[in-house]
Amino acid sequence: MTSHETTALVLDTPQDLLLTIPFLLGFHPQDSLVVLSLTSERRLARVMRTEVIVPNERDAVRELIGALAWQNIEDVMLVAYTGSDGLSFLEICENEIKSAGFSLIESIVVNETHWISRLCEKECGSCLHEGNPLPAFDSSRIAFEHVIRGHVMPCASEHDLANTLAQVGGPIPSMGEVLPLPVAAALLRRVWERWQVSRTLFPAEIGPTLLALENLALRDFAITMHKSRQLLDAVELWRTLLTQAPFGYRAPVACLLAATSYEAGEGGLARLALDEAEKDDPEYSLAGLLKRVMESGWPPEAFTRMRHELAEKLGALVRDAA
After folding, report:
1. Rounded to whole angstroms, how far apart are CA atoms 56 and 161?
2. How far is CA 312 from CA 280, 293, 307, 308, 315, in A?
3. How far apart, in whole angstroms, are the C-alpha atoms of residue 192 and residue 202?
4. How far apart are CA 271 and CA 291, in angstroms?
5. Which one of 199, 256, 258, 303 is separated from 164 by 20 to 30 angstroms, measured CA to CA?
6. InterPro entries from the xrefs (predicted)?
7. Is 117 a residue whose pLDDT tops 50?
8. Are 263 and 306 in contact (CB under 8 A)?
9. How close are the terminal C-alpha atoms of the chain, in Å?
10. DSSP class of residue 86?
11. Distance of CA 75 to CAs 79, 121, 295, Å?
């Protein structure tokens, strides 16, 4: 199985899968069911997470099946992080996925110390009794490869990941005056280019950058500034800027973070970023659009195409900012 990145990360074993899931979500899941769908080329199409204890299990399963239905996928893998109390939901998911015509190629249960494959056909004994010890995470090859590619280490929980997006304390940045469009675009370009070199945001430019992103054309221009190989750099820029953004200026930055992180395969971070956008402005139209697109199961590659199309439409602004 591979991810969608240009140089694909190959997962050879169930242990590799378990080590990769926290990077896909941005945190180590607990009391969760993770659903991974694969294309006919065995490329990762989508990762979804839901609670294993839900009020109406069959309705929750129908929502999951509906999200899978329109995608060009053939195989599905399930990983349940739970004790025995979450197994009934997992069993319903297994049966409904098969009934819907998908091939269920793996179903794993993970507890605090061990994992067990419910589909293991080998006579190894471990999947029938005590299970297999969880692989060491921090020292693993998978963790090393993700960090080398620019991913940050996953947080301990979803709550901890959400806290990384909160506004930090300190003085509210001075916004200054509204800049002419070409000047503001050049500012955004300068901030982005400096970030790639030094991972630095100049305090005097934070306010004008946030003010520039209030303009829809400049916000869309910001989506187009990076290339695909620079996705993770862009994710960290918008994540850092979001922590500096005061209430009333957070929604555009949060949407930029959501779009880039989703395209980079970090769906958990993308959804938390949309939560931040909606807290800042419940009527912010791009947040609503991105939420609908993500919930409908658009693949990350669709965001890449959208970014390229935006770049063509904003060609004049791009040239003025160069």
Report:
1. 27
2. 30, 21, 9, 7, 5
3. 11
4. 8
5. 303
6. DUF4192 (IPR025447)
7. yes
8. no
9. 39
10. G
11. 14, 18, 19
Cβ atoms of 287 and 254 within 8 Å: the answer is yes
266 CB-near residues (< 8 Å, 6+ apart): 23, 24, 25, 26, 151, 235
- 251 neighbors 284 (Cβ within 8 angstroms): yes
Q: Which residue has the tokens 């605090």?
A: 112
Q: Which amino acid is at 286?
A: L
Sign of CA dihedral 48, 53, 55, 57: positive
For residues 33 and 93, what is the distance between their CA atoms, to the nearest angstrom? Answer: 10
d(CA 213, CA 210): 5
Alpha-carbon span 216 to 229, nearest angstrom: 25
DSSP string of 143-208, one letter each residue: HHHHHHTTPPPPBSSHHHHHHTTSPPSSPPPP--PPPPHHHHHHHHHHHHHHHHHH----HHHHHH
Protein fold of 14-157: Cytidine Deaminase; domain 2 (3.40.140)
Assessment of whether the complete model's pTM goes beyond 0.90: no
